Description:
Helix content: 40-55%
Shape: elongated
Number of strands: 2
Strand content: 15-25%
Largest sheet: 2 strands, antiparallel
Order of helices and strands: HHHEE
Number of helices: 3
Amino acid sequence: MQRSKVSYYLFQLFSLIFIKTKIAKHDGLVSIKSAFTKLDLEAFSINLPHVEHDICWRWAFRYLWIMRIKGKQLPYGRD
């Protein structure tokens, strides 16, 4: 999940219509506030020098972080 003001306020708006319980609304907002940013993930990747990293933004304010061990082939010939 991506931490941003836009995702936080969109969730607030979305939850007014679709989420009925206070706990679910609160939990969603806490999750957004505590989510990683792309800079956070890149900082973590520095501590893994033998791993290749791809960090891609995905739909619904999420990041996909793919890690591969440098020099290793994936099964079935996929790279």
